[in-house]
């Protein structure tokens, strides 16, 4: 989904850059509430995993590429604000060191993946969690998988909306919508499955580390017995 340089006109690129600056600035101030001594190392691991997953690109057409987003996975594991920062760091490193996505399009890519990708998946997850709250923490992996699947075509449709406003490539909008939505629906299926298993593996061992399971995990109190049994 990385947008290259020159794909969108200057006003659209500047507009998405302003959205990206505002979103990342807000995330910097709010992420402190999500991080503590236990979850901070997990945020680093999430960023590394998303970076590796996004480096596996394949062409979608018209100079764009398809890959896993990882936004919903990051949001469910470490919280949406921290996930926004994780995705932003990943996208900046990819653009500056690996030429993956244009530098002038970095604001567009952050808006699409670190903001739209993360928050659309998180909001779907929160809505599903309220509906299935009685199922407890065991439902979190499946809910995260559904939310991850949904977030990918939403981000793809957001990209096509930006192209409709300020696209510079000679590509019919209808063809671009068909290609982006079709490919990213398939990508969304893979993203949903990977998110389900990744969240499920952590829920099985350390449910207290999963941000999306907070309030659903039963608190265990440490019991210290001072008397020896006869």
Please report the total strand number as a whole number: 2
The spatial strand order of the largest sheet comes to: 1-2
Percent helix among the residues?
55-70%
Average pLDDT value? Answer: 87
Order of helices and strands: HHEEHHHHH
Query: Which structural class best describes the helix and strand composition?
Result: mainly alpha
- Note poorly predicted spans: none
> How much of the sequence is in beta strands?
under 5%
> What gross morphology would you assign?
elongated
Whole-angstrom Rg: 19 Å
Q: Counting H and I runs of at least 4 residues, what is the number of helices?
A: 7
Tell me the quaternary state.
Answer: single chain
> How would a crystallographer describe the biggest sheet?
2 strands, antiparallel
Give the N-to-C terminal Cα separation: 67 Å
Write the layout of secondary structure elements.
Layout lengths: L9 H21 L8 H16 L3 E4 L2 E3 L4 H8 L1 H19 L7 H26 L8 H27 L6 H33 L25
Helix pairs in contact: 1-4, 1-5, 2-3, 2-4, 3-4, 3-5, 3-6, 4-5, 5-6, 6-7
Could you describe the 3D structure shown?
This protein has 230 residues and is mostly helical. The protein is built from seven helices and two strands. The chain has a two-stranded antiparallel sheet with strand order 1-2. A hairpin with a 2-residue loop joins strand 1 and strand 2 (64-66). Helix 1 (10-30) crosses helix 5. It is elongated and about 80 Å long. The N and C termini lie far apart (67 Å).
